[in-house]
Amino acid sequence: MWTGRETLHSIEQGLNQVREQVQQVDERIQSTSRDLVALRQDEGARYRRLAQIRLDQMVSGEIAAGLDAADRRVSELLAEREAALQSLQQRIDAARKTQSDLEQRRAEQSDRVERAAEALDVSEGEVQKQLHGDPEYQRQLETARKADSVARHAEEKTHQAESDRAEKGKPYESDPLFIYLWKRGYGTTKYSGNRLTRFLDKWVANLCNYQDARPNYAMLLDIPVRLREHAARARAAADREFEALKSLEREAAEQGGVFKMRQALDEAEERMAAIDRNIHDREEEIRGFLKERATYAAGEDAFFRRCIEALAGAFQREKLSVLHGYARATATAADDVIVHELADLNERETDLEETLAEHKKMYERQLARLQELEDVRRRFKHERFDDIHSVFGNADLLAVVLSQFLRGMASSDDLWRTIRRAQRYRRMRSNPRFGSGGFGDNGTWRIPFPKGRWGPIGRGGGGFGSGGGFRTGGGF
C-alpha cells in the first residue's frame, strides 16, 4: 500500500525520467544536425578539389569562389545558431531552476499541510470522544435519528403513492368519456351547462359508469398530495432536529479549537495550491521553450535552413554538373576518387536525414508523454490525492502501469484510471461520519472523502434530507 505522498513521489520520479529521455533525444538530434551540416561542408570541399583538377581556370575559379563563399556563410550562420541555442538553453535552465525551487517549496508546504491536517484530525477526534460521553448530545442524536427515520418513511410512502397514482390512473386517463367529464367537473360544484348539455353528459356518465369511478380517481390523485405535505412537514421537523444536533457539535468544536485548526489547514492548503499554480505556469513556459528548441532539434530553425540553402545554392549551379560529368569522363585517378567520395557522402547524407527524422518523431513522442504525465500529476494534486487520509491499495499494479506508461505501452488515461481505482481514504482519529456526519455531507466534521470512496457519505442537494434524507446508523 502506498500513501498519497508516496504515490505522488513515484509520479514525479517518472517525470524526471521522461525529462532525462527528452534531454537525451535532444542531444542526439543536435549531434545529428551538426553532422549533417558538416557533411555538406565536406561535400563542398571535395567539389573545390575537383574543380582544381585539369579544368579550365575560369570555370574552376568561379566554382571554387562560390563554394568558398558558401562555406564562410555557413560558418557564420552556425556561429549565430550556436549563440541562439545557448540563449535558449539559458532560458530553459533558468525556468527549470525556478521549477525546482517551486517543487522544493511545495514539498515543504506539503509537510505543513500534513501537520495541520494531523492536528485537526486529533482535535476532532478528542471532541467526538467528549460528545460520545455527553448525555445531552446523545439524546439529541437519538431524537434526530428518529425524526429522520419518520421523514424517510414518509418520503418512501409518498414515492410509492406517486408510483401507484401513475400506474392505477392509466385506465381512467385512457378513457376519453371519463376524462371528458372529469375535465368538465361533472358531479361537482364546478360543473355547469345548459339543459341539453346536462342531458347528454348524464347519458355519457351512464355509459362510462362515471359516478362510481369519479370518487376512486379523486382519491387516487389526493393521496400523493396529502402524503407529500406530510413528508414535507416531517422533513422540516427532521431538519430542525439536525440543526440542533449540529449546534451542540459546533459549540463543542469551538471550545476544542477545531475551527481554528480547520482555518489553519485551509490556509496551508491554499498556499500549496498557489505554489501548484506557479509550478503549472513554469511547466507551460518550459514546454514552450522545448517546442522552440524542437525546431532546432529537427533542423527546422531559420539558421539551419539558411545553411542548407547556402550550400545547396552553390551545389546546384549548372557548372557543378558539368564538373562532375567531366571528372567521370577523364581517366585521372584523383578525380575518380573524389567522385566516389561524393557518392559516399550522398549516401551518408540520406542516412543522416532519415536518422534526424526518426529522432524528431521520438522527440515529439517524448514531449507528448511528458505533457501527459504532467497533466496526470496536476489532476492528482487537484483531487488532493496526496492528502494524509489518501492511500492506494494496489501499489504493485500502479507501479506496473506507471512503468508501462513510461515505456509507451499504456496511455495516460490508463494510468489515471488505475490511480482512481486504487485510491481510497482511511479514517484516522476523527470519524467523518460521527454524529451529524452520519446523516450526510452537511455535517460538522471535515470530510475530505468523496462519495463512494469511503462508505456511503453524502446526500442529494436541495436542503437537509432531500433526495433520500441523511444517513442513519453511521454515527459511531
Beta strand %:
under 5%
Structural classification? mainly alpha
Shape annotation: elongated
Rounded to the nearest angstrom, the distance between the terminal CA atoms is 26 Å
> Strand order of the main beta sheet, please?
1-2-3
- Average pLDDT confidence is 81
- Tally of domains: 2
Largest sheet geometry: 3 strands, antiparallel
> What string, H for helix and E for strand, traces the elements in order?
EHHHHHHHHHHHEHHE
Helix content, binned percent? over 70%
Can you walk me through this structure?
The structure is a single chain. This protein has two domains: 8-115 and 272-386, no CATH class; 132-249. It is built from 13 helices and three strands. The protein has helices at 4-51, 57-132, 135-168, 170-173, 176-184, 195-208, 210-255, 258-297, 302-315, 318-329, 333-382, 395-406, 412-422, and strands at 2-3, 390-392, 423-425. It has a three-stranded antiparallel beta sheet. The protein starts with a strand and ends in a 51-residue tail after the last strand. 30% of the residues are buried.
Question: What secondary-structure arrangement, pairings included, does this model have?
Answer:
Blueprint: E1 2-3, H1 4-51, H2 57-132, H3 135-168, H4 170-173, H5 176-184, H6 195-208, H7 210-255, H8 258-297, H9 302-315, H10 318-329, H11 333-382, E2 390-392, H12 395-406, H13 412-422, E3 423-425
Antiparallel strand pairs: 1-2, 2-3
Helix pairs in contact: 1-2, 1-8, 1-9, 1-11, 1-12, 2-8, 2-9, 3-7, 8-11, 12-13
